[in-house]
Amino acid sequence: MFSSDFFSSLRFRLLASLFVLLGLSISISLYGLWTFERDQYLLIAQDEATRAGKTIEKALRSAMLQNNRPAIQQAVDDIHAIVKPSVISVLSYGSTVMVSSDKGLLGKHFDRNREATCVVCHTSPGMTPQRQAIFLETEAGPVLRNIIKIPNGPECYGCHAPEQKNCGILLYDVFFTDTIEILHTVLIRMILTGLASFVALIFILSFIIQRYVHHPLQQMMEGFAHVGTGDFNHWVEVEVRGEFQDMATQFNVMSRAIQRSFAEIKGKNWETTSLYTFVQQLSQAIEWRRLQRLITDLLCETFKARQVVVFLAREKQEQVIYEIAWRQADDLRYYHREYSSWKAAADLPDGVTQAWEKWRAGELTSAIFSDKDTRVVLALDSKNIALGLVCLQREPGLSFSGAEKKLLLALAEQVGIALANARLYRIAITDGLTELYTRRYCEASMQKLLEAHESTPEKGFCVLMLDLDHFKLVNDTHGHQVGDEVLIQLAGLLRTSIRQEDVACRYGGEEFIILVNGDLSKGLESAQRLRQVIEEHLFISRTAPPLHKTISIGVANFPLHGKNGEEVIGAADHALYEAKERGRNRVVCFGEE
Question: Which of 45, 117, 366, 376 is most exposed, with minimal Cβ within 10 Å?
Answer without folding.
Answer: 366
